[in-house]
């Protein structure tokens, strides 16, 4: 497994993973392109051979010492192999290397990845019942 910074030709595959993983709540392709432009080096991909199997998008927050994990997705065929953990660690390391001392993310309260975030030091810091609108709760998690 190879984790590397995304290049422009990866964006179509990243968008496919985003759409497959998050459906209507996934980021549109144009946002992923703009994020790639805005935060150079913050879109990481995992590949095996020629297959892109996962990605993570991270960025700095309003404060220079705050970072966000904006999206993390792994192809269904590659789940359960530790790829999400590797991607998340790589993103956290990148953000910490940029001076981020607090890293945040949001997650559905019943998302199976919740245990992954907790195992890497993220703790629940709040809950918003209508994060994306009515009936769309999210937990705010913080790693400090």
TrEMBL record:
It holds the Pfam family Acetyltransf_1. Keywords: Acyltransferase, Transferase. One of its GO terms (molecular function) is acyltransferase activity, transferring groups other than amino-acyl groups. This is GNAT family N-acetyltransferase. InterPro entries: Acyl_CoA_acyltransferase (IPR016181), Bact_Acetyltransf (IPR050832), GNAT_dom (IPR000182). Residues 1-144 form the N-acetyltransferase domain.
């Amino acid at each position: 497994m190879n984790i590397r910074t995304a290049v422009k030709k990866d964006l179509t595959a990243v968008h496919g993973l985003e759409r497959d993983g998050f459906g209507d709540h996934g980021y549109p392709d144009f946002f992923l392109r703009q994020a790639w432009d805005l935060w150079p080096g913050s879109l990481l991909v995992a590949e095996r051979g020629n297959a892109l199997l996962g990605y993570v998008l991270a960025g700095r927050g309003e404060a220079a010492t705050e970072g966000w994990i904006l999206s993390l997705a792994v192809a269904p065929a590659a789940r359960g192999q530790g790829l999400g953990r590797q991607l998340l660690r790589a993103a956290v390391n990148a953000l910490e290397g940029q001076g981020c001392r607090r890293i945040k993310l949001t997650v559905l309260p019943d998302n199976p990845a919740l245990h992954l975030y907790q195992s890497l030091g993220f703790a629940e810091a709040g809950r918003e019942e209508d994060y994306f609108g009515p009936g769309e709760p999210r937990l705010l998690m913080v790693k400090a």
